[in-house]
Design brief:
Elements lengths: L15 H45 L4 H16 L8 H5 L4 E10 L2 E8 L2 E7 L24 H16 L3 H4 L12 H10 L7 H11 L2 H9 L9 E5 L2 E5 L2 E2 L18 H4 L2 H21 L5 E3 L7 E3 L5 E3 L5 E3 H8 L10 E2 L2 E2 L2 E2 L4 E2 L7 H13 L2 H4 L6 H15 L4 H6 L7 H23 L23
Antiparallel strand pairs: 1-2, 2-3, 3-5, 4-5, 6-8, 7-10, 8-9, 11-12, 13-14
């Protein structure tokens, strides 16, 4: 026995074998604990890093006034350094004529800000936050001075970029289409604007122009605004940010979709009831559909049709304000032409085609149409018996509801027309044209019954606005 009464040797362990087992168990538990601790530490490290990444991602798209103001301040610093320019830069950065209002939203890098420019509300947009995030114009790296580039050189490079952005090859643009000046080559029209410049472009002008041309929405709006009353107007730019007109956008939760009170300042509310205004807006939707279907060399497809992507002017003209999902026919075909196992694989948002079982390939031609989706998502909620109340049983209202129902259920897009070998050929294609005419007739008669004067709702005189800097 050792001092203190402790038993030595194997007596205290009940034998040497038991002590050995206890010692081995302690070692095994120590190794197991170490392994468990290591796994817990590694798991916690992964979790915390994932949390940080998610947090950064959320914060990067979290819209704040402080961040928006810093973005614009950085843009003004670049203007002061001579890196960027534009017809809005001096008003924004020197004269203080662009007043910041609020941040609207950030989405996948895109920044959208509300401001007032010379007292008028505008929306500032950029696809990317920083000017340096855009690809520079490569030719500038091989030129001692930007002045060596002639306006004709700029036309060449800009036309290539416009064609690429809109998905139009040169031979596509030269194809025949409907008649009228609106069918001119879009890229060529852009080139004419640039060619009117009688002096060389500065390096800042070229860099700013190139950053804007890399933004599909800017290119789309800027080219089409001289051809269509149904797209938002680009009012100016500074560097990679551009300003578009502020319009009253739609909301799914509003039974009238658009806030009709906001257009009342034009005096229309004094002449028209809310229901008459809805009928005029519906007529403007029909005008827009016909315009996008027929007035360009290629049909223009809207693949994300929802109230938030449209707005109305004070004369009740419908305007497409978010055109990130708008494509001309050649690009639409490229998008739809994919492998498939069923028709569900051939849906691209609101644009769909059919899957050929033998080829296991989606048809490159769209099956549905702009009008069909608008009838389904816009007209059906508008003209439902629930909203119409006691008027739902009136003969013209019943006829309108039936026409809208037929419209929303009628296929007959480009795929069906191609199969029957003609523009508008095929039974379904003729049905969709017929229902378009029926809707037009019924809505016109409803306005006449309501005692409307027949003015407004889609036509207006173009106000003089000039986006002059850089001539683009």
């Amino acid at each position: 026995m050792l001092p203190g009464g402790l038993v030595s040797g194997g007596a205290g362990c009940g034998g040497g074998g038991l002590c050995l087992l206890r010692w081995l168990g302690l070692r095994l538990w120590s190794r197991r604990g170490t392994l468990v601790f290591a796994l817990l530490w590694f798991g916690s490290w992964l979790f915390l890093n994932g949390l940080v990444l998610v947090h950064r991602s959320i914060l990067s798209d979290y819209c704040t006034d402080d961040k928006s103001k810093r973005i614009l301040q950085r843009l003004c610093l670049e203007f002061g350094e001579g890196s960027v320019t534009g017809d809005m830069c001096e008003d924004l950065c020197v004269l203080g004529l662009v007043e910041y209002k609020r941040c609207l939203y950030y989405e996948n890098g895109k920044k959208v800000i509300e401001a007032r420019w010379r007292g008028n509300p505008v929306i500032l947009k950029s696809k990317l936050e920083n000017f340096s995030s855009y690809e520079p114009l490569g030719i500038l790296d091989y030129q001692d001075t930007a002045e060596e580039l002639s306006p004709l050189d700029v036309v060449f490079y800009a036309t290539l970029e416009v064609r690429n952005s809109l998905g139009l090859a040169e031979d596509d643009e030269d194809e025949g289409g409907g008649g009228g000046g609106s069918n001119s080559s879009l890229a060529r029209l852009w080139g004419k604007k640039l060619k009117s410049r009688d002096k060389s472009y500065s390096r800042a002008e070229l860099a700013s122009l190139w950053s804007l041309l890399q933004q599909e929405e800017y290119t789309f709006l800027r080219v089409l605004q001289d051809l269509s009353t149904h797209v938002a107007k680009v009012l100016g730019s500074c560097g990679h940010f551009y300003a578009v007109e502020y319009l009253s956008a739609g909301h799914a939760w509003d039974q009238n979709i658009f806030s009709l009170e906001e257009v009342a300042v034009s005096g229309a509310r004094g002449r028209w009831t809310s229901r008459e205004m809805v009928h005029r807006i519906a007529l403007s939707f029909l005008d827009m559909v016909g315009h996008f279907d027929s007035d360009f060399t290629h049909k223009l497809h809207l693949c994300d049709i929802k109230p938030e992507n449209f707005a109305i002017r004070k004369d009740l003209t419908v305007v497409a304000i978010d055109v990130d999902m708008a494509f001309f026919e050649p690009k639409m075909r490229d998008i739809l032409d994919q492998n498939c196992s069923s028709d569900d694989d051939c849906n691209f948002f609101d644009c769909s085609s059919r899957c050929h079982p033998s080829k296991r390939r989606c048809s490159a031609r769209r099956r549905n149409s702009n009008l069909q989706v608008i009838c389904e998502k816009i007209f059906r909620p508008w003209f439902s018996p629930t909203l119409l109340g006691a008027k739902a049983g009136l003969p013209l209202q019943v006829e309108l509801q039936r026409a809208v129902q037929e419209c929303s259920e009628t296929d007959g897009g480009e795929e069906e027309r191609e199969e029957h070998g003609g523009e508008g050929g095929g039974e379904a294609g003729q049905r969709i044209q017929s229902v378009h005419q029926r809707l037009l007739s019924i809505l016109t008669r409803l306005l006449q019954e309501g005692g409307a004067s027949g003015e407004g709702g889609g036509a207006w005189e173009e106000k003089g606005h000039a986006h002059t800097a850089l001539n683009f």
